[in-house]
Amino acid sequence: MKLTIFGTGYVGLVQAAVMAEVGHDVLCMDIDQAKIEQLQQGQVGIYEPGLAELVREGVAAGHLRFTHDVAEAVQHGAVQFIAVGTPPGPDGGADLSGVFAVAEGIARHRSEPVIIVEKSTVPVGTGDRLKAHIEAQLAHSGKRLEFTIVSNPEFLKEGSALNDCRRPDRIILGGEDEAALDLMREIYAPFNRNHDRILCMNLRSAELTKYAANCMLATKISFINQIAELAENLGADIEAIRKGIGADPRIGYHFIYPGCGYGGSCFPKDIKALIHTAQEAGCGSDLLQAVEAVNERQKRKLFQRIHAYYQGDLKGRTFALWGLAFKPNTDDMRDAPSRELMESLWAAGAKVRAYDPEAMAEAQRIYGHDERLALMGTPEAVLPGADALVICTEWQVFKAPDFELIKRQLRAPVIFDGRNLYDPQRLARKGIHYFAIGRGESL
Ligand code: UGA
């Protein structure tokens, strides 16, 4: 099947590579010409395990191609996926200019029938707005085009994106046109093994399913973080509580890890967008607002703890930092808790020496000009002479460190851990001052 994918970010590129892998004829389009030229040479600018290899395989097999030419892209696919960015606008609502620009391109250059698929996360009602927009454009130009809109939200997680796309939990298809939904079923047939994972619903339900999923997950995190705060103040241990509640299958062990706040390109943006949608619809958004407020607080927690420990005297101190990415197995630093922490430390007159297994180039790109940040090549290299070690991301490589070395290298044996990687009692026995999330010592 001939497919066009607009946008070569995480969602678009992963989708394209996986669709090409199962034999579809995929053409990707992006307005960023430099990116397209790199991709044509098999260079993938984002870190995602296995993605660069899969893209190169797809290109070599002739199933995956890249173009900067809108007309060529629009003429290619019987099905066209819109996977461009939808960043938050100034009022918290999603900025849909990229999505509408693609739709305009389709209206202008397409004459064969086409299915337009919303793959980007877009507010409820966008499908209907896109339809009206394209119809108006066609009426204006006097052109005829047979088109239909399908919502097919993406549920991949950065770091395990290929696996999530190859073996999806569910494939959501929203639309009113049965023939279009049947064609979508055919496209997804290779991913629909063992039992039927395809759920068809109306357009608006599919659009809202995406937000509901992310906001539910964010709610779980803010919930456990709020309980962690309580635990800390009441002399309870959140790790015991997490296991205790997780044992109930209605709650489950997944996605209830306390930490220094959720980040990334999705949860913060999607919570804001759904609050905005609810307000526009005249509906309550109080729970969602609370989820966001708890997370904002949580992202400041590490800094507040450090500030309290040193009684506000942070000027001239240096902090060793492990983990810059918003979570492990990605180089993505969008809305990462590490950024809030570093920026607060700098504002208080401190310096940071940081290490991350994958996000060093990204940190260099964002903060390279700032001499208050030193980026080091190994986890150990950040330690010598630092006042304390701070952990923001639970990379595997940080989980079993040489504590004797840490003690020897730091100016004083102090660790502020935003991801609860270690056993507080064990560290206390080693003579390390250890501050985790929701585990005993509160500051
Ligand atoms: C998230 C969703 O999990 C995907 O299903 C969805 O497709 C994606 O957003 C999207 O909308 O595109 P992602 O942003 O890659 O995926 O990251 P997650 O693994 O969900 O983690 C989000 C944040 O929550 C991270 O900062 C992580 O550290 C934090 N987190 C996660 C916790 O603090 N505790 C947990 O128990 C789990």
Automatic annotation (TrEMBL):
The active site is at 266 (nucleophile). Substrate binds at residues 155-158, 210, 255-259, 263, 327. This is UDP-glucose 6-dehydrogenase. It comes from the Bacteria. PANTHER family: UDP-GLUCOSE 6-DEHYDROGENASE TUAD. GO terms for molecular function: NAD binding; UDP-glucose 6-dehydrogenase activity. Residues 320-424 form the UDP-glucose/GDP-mannose dehydrogenase C-terminal domain. It catalyses: UDP-alpha-D-glucose + 2 NAD(+) + H2O = UDP-alpha-D-glucuronate + 2 NADH + 3 H(+). Pathway: Nucleotide-sugar biosynthesis; UDP-alpha-D-glucuronate biosynthesis; UDP-alpha-D-glucuronate from UDP-alpha-D-glucose: step 1/1. GO terms for biological process: polysaccharide biosynthetic process; UDP-glucuronate biosynthetic process. NAD(+) binds at residues 30, 35, 86, 121, 158, 269, 334. The keyword Cell cycle does not apply. Keywords: NAD, Oxidoreductase. Belongs to the UDP-glucose/GDP-mannose dehydrogenase family. Its EC number is 1.1.1.22.
